[in-house]
Amino acid sequence: MSTADADVTVPDTPGPDGRPGELTTGRVARVGDIEVRRLLPLRHRRSVGAWCFVDHYGPTSVDGVAGMQVPPHPHIGLQTVTWLLDGNVLHRDSLGSEQMIRPGQLNLMTAGRGIAHSEESPDEHDPRLHGVQLWLALPEAQRQVPPAFEHHPELPSAGLAGFEITVFAGSLAGAQSPATVFSPVVGARLHAGRDTRAQLGLDPGFEHVIFMVTGTGEAAGTALAPGSLLYLPPGRDQVTLAAAGGAGLFLLGGTPLNQPVVMWWNFVGTTPEDIIDAARDWSQGGRFGEIPGYQGKPLPAPSLDAVRLRR
Ligand code: MN
After folding, report:
1. How far is the CA of 233 from the centre of ligand 1 (A)?
2. 266 part of a folded domain
């Protein structure tokens, strides 16, 4: 997915309020015709572990309409993590990958030094669409890795009380994802098959965020519903989770990223020059390549205010 905005503006949020975590409310943004809840980045928190972007969209009807239509656009310096809870989306990229994704599967695209991709509801698509789009910032030492794409049709899961835990990045509750990541992170989806409460073990070196995608729940004593994000600082070796039957939530975490995160449009860099160079290369062609099989025009980059970016 593409941020679609001229730059990544972020919601105003309260600071720590004495609770065990910090609850923030995402802002509503649009990606093409799809409305998204943008939960990360926050003005005061650019990343949680290496997770630097969290969009949650739907559930929404795409019956009889085009649905998700994100034309070719470039990325650098990040991995995109695509996860659907309902529906189907076709990914194409400049490596020649063409992959339909469905619920429970993982599309993981490593941009490295540069890649372009498109994401679209296929002509004959499911009537519903519900998913998350996440970005992992690449550590400085791996920012220039060659681009790559992985599709994982099946991922490991674990049971905990009434929760089914599917691990798509790192490891949790004894399950380990096969996905290639470049820093210590965890990413998991938890589904409550019934009203349930459980203590989930965490890596105390990690900071975490938790957000609901369906239904209501509670984490570390804070009530949660879709659209809000609970941040938990490092130093915690467990969290108490509760959820109503049928509810779903995500847990993301990692070792705090010890580097600047400069984010503009679909680029993640550590300096403004990373971004300025990538924007120039997208407009001039070359670095990012073409997407075989895509009919239509690529997305132009918005105009870049280098002075503002350097601030
Ligand atoms: Mn994208």
Report:
1. 28
2. yes
Cα of 266 from ligand 1 centre, angstroms? 7
Let me know how long the chain is. Answer: 311
Distance in angstroms (rounded) separating the CA atoms of residues 177 and 171: 6
Q: Within a domain: residue 294?
A: no
pLDDT in tens, 58-74: 999 999 999 999 999 99
Do the Cβ atoms of 304 and 275 come closer than 8 Å?
yes
State the total domains in the chain: 1
CA–centroid distance, residue 2 to ligand 1 (Å): 4
Looking at every residue in the chain, the average pLDDT score rounds to: 93
How far is Cα 176 from Cα 155, in angstroms, rounded to an integer? 8
Cα(177) to centroid(ligand 1), Å: 22
Q: Domain range spanning residue 32?
A: 10-283
Q: Report d(CA 106, CA 123) in Å as an integer.
A: 21
In angstroms, what is the span from residue 118 Cα to ligand 1's centroid?
7
298 is a domain residue? no
**Is there a domain that residue 306 lies in?**
no
Q: Tell me, what CATH number does 114's domain have? A: 2.60.120.10
